[in-house]
Amino acid sequence: MAVRIERQQANAEQIAHYLESHGFKTRYPGLQSHPQYELHRSMARGAGAVLSFETGNVKVSERIVESTRIWGISVSFGCVNSLIRFAWGKANYADL
Known about the structure:
This protein is an alpha+beta fold and 96 residues long. It has two domains: 1-54, Aspartate Aminotransferase, domain 1 (Alpha-Beta Complex); 55-96, no CATH class. The chain has helices at 2-21, 37-43, 58-67; strands spanning 25-27, 52-54, 72-73, 83-84. The strands form two sheets. Strands 1-2 form a two-stranded antiparallel sheet. Strands 3-4 form a two-stranded parallel sheet. The longest helix is centred in the first third of the chain and has 20 residues, at 2-21.
């Protein structure tokens, strides 16, 4: 289990850095730009495997969601699958 969690965190951190470097507003406690980065580091051993980002553009968001091959589209994150959610003023993706 420890190896899996470490790999998930490493992947999330790499993705967060990539998204941030491409101009997306990225929320991940492992990024130094996160407003509570220092607090999180003082309380946790890792930044976790969940992140969020904003594209600022509906068309870009739709393209990202529709192009994913690894993540399943979801309205809830209560499982162990890799998931993505598109929430541009909609309750769930089926409303689009």
